Predict the structure.
Amino acid sequence: MGMHPAWIEIDLLQLQRNISIVRNWIGKDTLFCLPVKANAYGHGLCEIGKYAEKQGVDYLAVAHLEEGISLRNAGVHIPILIFGAIHEDQIGELINYNFEFTISSRWKGELVSRICRTKKAPIHIEIDTGHRRTGVRASNGRALFLYLQSLDCFNIIGIYSHLATADQPNNSFAHKQIETFISLIEDPIFKEKKLISHLANSGGTLHYPASHLDMVRPGLLTFGYNSAHLPVQPCFSLKAKVAYFKVVEEGEGISYGHTFTTRSTTRIVTLPIGYGDGYLRRLSNRGSVLIRGKRFPIVGMICMDQLMVDIGNNEVFVGEEAVLIGKQGDEEISVEEISLLCDTLPYEILCLLNSRLPRIYLS
Ligand SMILES: *Cc1c(COP(=O)(O)O)cnc(C)c1O
């Protein structure tokens, strides 16, 4: 089978550099947990998980049980932490696969205790210090810990919380969350147990050294985005091969609804990628692509499987490579640029690019 004509390229050497930059930044005494949820932010769950393990990352984290199972089946050995709230019918598998999972209520603790007989379940307790998503209120953290210990079915490994506003440096609410969390874990009851305490996402890792504690969990940063003062770089490119070429006369409408009309005779090339791949339709008449190192506009509505590009008087042949995200020559289209055009964040642009696009790993 030939290669699909639109694809994602992951530069593993750049990822390796990013991992070592983050590692140096946090210091050797801090554990490095790489979140690889949502297909490793679109980079490919299992490939990235295995590579991160090889590069000495200490922990992986995912949102859901199935993501963890995929990693284990791919041969990942390092600890895998599941962030999401667990469901009753998953408990057997959570324990059998030896995942570290999150408990943040008595109710979930009790559900697990009904099932775990032979093996203690390794867990992290999640504390809500202000993100208001999941986690037990900080004021109830101690009581939950004592309760879970009393059930004699848990190996309590860690305690963590999540920051709501750490993407901005010197944000007062982030400082407050850090303070709340630190004053909780300083309780001798936690200290004694030598729990792994962790709080920092990318923003915390970058801007709040006080949040590093025993382990950090920077996802987006490690993939090379929102890097502020760290020299990490994206390792992700999106490419397609020109599938078709035509000359279009002045005054002709392009694609569904004719939302674009040519102003002069021009050359239009078609790329075999569309919103069916997760390349957002919002980029119609806004986005651009690079061909031969030059930037050209996407014209007309992006279709499910194809989109059209106006190359003016330039020459381009069918089969040539177009870059939709990444560098070509001296030009670059960044994920940040696209996310601004779509009024969203790099996270969403990356995760939406789906499995119809093969991931190619360069090393
Ligand atoms: C997704 C997630 C992270 C990583 O967030 P980034 O902003 O990508 O660094 C860390 N911790 C938790 C609990 C998460 O859900």
Q: What stands out?
A: Residues 35, 37, 83, 162, 201-202, 217-221 surround pyridoxal-5'-phosphate (CB under 6 Å). The chain has a mean pLDDT of 97. Residues 12-26 form the longest helix (15 residues).
